[in-house]
Write a structure and sequence with these properties.
Helix content: 25-40%
Shape: globular
Number of helices: 16
Number of strands: 22
Strand content: 15-25%
Structural class: alpha+beta
Largest sheet: 8 strands, antiparallel
Radius of gyration: 26 Å
Length: 671
């Protein structure tokens, strides 16, 4: 039975569950699966529609992508007025700098928050790239080690086994030995990924031939930094490694709705926003393995989390609707012992703020982060074959750590395999330019190139395009935050997120260092640098730092907003992602991350979700454990109490209440 059909049962069935999971994206799908497998009754509330878990629904999304003029991450997925999603097209740069924001977010920061996400069944992992590098051990202790940001209450060792579990669940292809040698990641000695690495592109090999063994400097007096092209782990079907799981191997998961399809990556160049064959992991693959203890209810927008006067969590109030284009909401309530918010960092914060919960620390919504991304682009001296295969299969890892991290933000470099697609809209923009179509309606049309000359020119130029993508670490700052304005609401009357966002000088220094490194790399490659930064309609992320212009883009890596920590006075959740103020309320996902490092965060998010599932199972077991009733002896048979009992003869000790259990387990130390 498909998850959407299960939702129809949930719509008319029981309203009492063991767990309610709000959001059926990556974290929510994993939590629901683990708890359902352990026998708990789980209701997954999904604000968006659920059409992509069938093959016809997937083909509809593909058709929308093929016909979209702007092939941005959300372009394949139908808009939903009941559950609007932020979109990169909501931002417009102004001629003299600054930006104008439209759409779902209300933005009032000095710089725009350029990250989007998707409110549909499967969530933002429907249009992610699928890259799954682990965080570095030092990323968990940036304040203790480097003197900035926030530390985690757990370390790499606490997550290592959950990283391996997440790599199995997502189906990761990679080379653990290469990751250990090139980056220094600690793996168990015999560990291999479930699948062998996605093959490097021809462009990767060209770059490696020039850069491997070379060195660059960030500035004239900085130490030499060695370069090496390293393959990137992917949650994408490749060749299964027969050594995995002590020789048991691994079976790749096929497409949702057509499970024998998509068991290998075939090199399509549209991982973002949609893999045509579904070789890339999406949460729909996890949902296909849910048992009948899990119920998915799409078209269900969570309005607020319900709690009693003592802060005990009761359930969720939500709104259902039928037509996404013209929604008419009906308010309903579902009850559960535990509620898990897994709706996205920004949506989790919005729900907590609306519900007025979990904010003793005044940290809900604060510490909003992303990977501000600097793009550089140019032309190689000969064809390098862009637009064949995933958007990136390898990168340069040397700048994720090192002494420079004490003074500027570190960064990871992806070798972009989609030409100038991200920085300049290629190849469509190349065709428009050669045809003489102006980029702005106020510009005159120039004389164009047509016919065989057009084809030849496109072949000469597009085949030589390449780009570098610098994902800059952003440290947690309280001023970067999500708030609410009761005057700004969506079609269902729910408050929209108000975003206040800026980049610190530390991040800007990291961006300046990244551009200096890019300049040296282009020189080593003998490439023609075509990078240009300046204000304009397509560069809302423009700013000046020092005497140079820069433009940054959002990476889609929203994090922070309900950070974890050691104290309820300074954080929202504990190391289990359990709210300090409400022990039966969890907020899971990248919003719990106190720091983001330089790795794409989805694998870490998945590992955290699997770890939290263990704690939720233990909480539920405590709540539902059988009550043992012992007969009270007759008064004349009551033995005298021990000297330290402190109770009168004949009095039965009071049972431990749920409230006591919650308090005791919540104060439990780290494992």
């Amino acid at each position: 039975m498909s998850p959407s059909r299960r939702g129809e049962e949930a719509r008319h069935g029981s309203h009492r569950y063991d767990v309610i999971v709000v959001g059926a994206g990556l974290s929510g799908s994993l939590v629901a699966k683990r708890l359902g497998d352990q026998g708990w009754r789980v209701l997954a509330l999904e604000a968006g529609t659920s059409t992509l878990d069938t093959w016809p629904g997937h083909l509809d999304a593909l058709d929308r992508y093929y016909t979209a003029s702007a092939k941005v991450p959300n372009s394949p997925y139908r808009p939903n007025a009941a559950a609007p999603s932020p979109d990169v097209l909501d931002l417009e740069g102004l001629p003299d700098g600054g930006y104008r924001a439209h759409g779902y977010f209300v933005q009032n920061g000095a710089l725009p928050y350029g990250t989007d996400y998707l409110r549909a069944n499967g969530g933002t992992a429907l249009h992610w790239m699928g890259l799954t590098p682990r965080m570095l051990p030092e990323d968990f202790a940036v304040r203790r080690t480097f003197g900035y940001g926030r530390d985690w209450p757990i370390g790499y060792a606490d997550l290592e086994s959950h990283y391996r579990a997440a790599e199995r669940e997502l189906g990761v292809a990679g080379d653990a030995q290469e990751q250990a040698a090139a980056i220094g990641l600690p793996f168990p000695g015999d560990y291999v990924y479930p699948m062998r690495p996605i093959p490097r592109t021809y462009l990767d090999d060209v770059v490696a031939a020039r850069l491997d063994g070379a060195t660059v400097q960030e500035s004239g007096d900085s130490p030499d930094i060695p370069l090496r092209v390293v393959t990137t782990p992917h949650a994408r079907n490749s060749t299964p490694d027969p050594r995995y799981d002590h020789g048991r191997g691994y079976r790749p998961a096929g497409a949702a709705g057509l499970p024998n399809y998509g068991e290998r990556c075939v090199g399509n160049a549209s991982c973002v926003p949609i893999c045509p064959v579904q070789a890339k992991y999406t949460p729909l693959k996890t949902q296909a393995t849910w048992n009948n203890r899990v119920r998915l209810l799409p078209h269900a927008v969570a309005g607020r989390v319900l709690a009693d006067g003592n802060g005990r969590i009761l359930g969720v109030e939500y709104q259902t609707y039928d037509d996404p284009a013209a929604p008419v909401p009906t308010t309903r309530t579902a009850e559960a012992d535990i509620v898990v918010l897994a709706a996205h960092a920004i949506e989790n914060a919005r729900l907590l703020l609306v519900s007025r919960l979990a904010n003793h620390s005044d940290q809900v919504g604060r510490n909003l982060m992303d990977h501000p991304t600097l793009l550089t682009w140019g032309l190689m001296g000969h064809p390098v074959g862009p637009f064949r295969g995933p958007g990136s299969t390898a990168g340069l890892e040397s700048f994720r750590s090192g002494p420079g991290r004490r003074t500027r933000a570190p960064f990871r470099i992806e070798i972009g395999n989609w030409g100038w697609g991200w920085p300049a809209g290629s190849p469509a923009s190349d065709v428009a330019r050669l045809l003489g179509i102006p980029g702005d309606s106020g510009q005159p049309r120039e004389r164009g190139t047509f016919g065989s000359e057009l084809r030849a020119t496109l072949g000469r130029e597009i085949g030589r395009q390449f780009s570098l993508q610098f994902a800059i670490e952003q440290d947690a700052e309280e001023r970067n935050r999500v708030t609410l304005d009761p005057r700004r609401r969506d079609r269902l009357g729910n408050p929209r997120p108000v975003i206040t966002y800026d980049l610190s000088d530390r991040v800007k220094r990291g961006m300046a260092a990244a551009k200096s490194v890019s300049d040296e790399i282009f020189g080593l490659l003998d490439a023609d640098d075509r990078t240009v930064y300046g204000p304009g309609p397509f560069t809302p992320g423009w700013f000046r730092f020092g005497d140079r212009d820069y433009v940054f883009n959002g990476a889609g890596h929203g994090a922070g907003t309900h950070v974890m920590g050691d104290s309820r006075d300074t954080s929202v959740v504990d190391h289990w992602q359990r709210c300090w103020d409400h022990p039966h309320l969890y907020a899971v996902g990248c919003g719990s991350m106190p720091s983001i490092g330089t790795s794409n965060p989805s694998l870490t998010m998945a590992a955290l979700a699997l770890r939290s599932s263990e704690r939720i199972h233990r909480d539920l077991t405590e709540l539902h454990r059988p009550v043992t009733v012992q007969p009270v002896p007759a008064p004349d048979a009551v033995p005298p109490p021990p000297p330290d009992a402190g109770s009168a003869p004949g009095r039965v000790p009071a049972p431990v209440t749920h409230q006591d259990t919650r308090r005791d387990t919540h104060q439990e130390g780290r494992p």
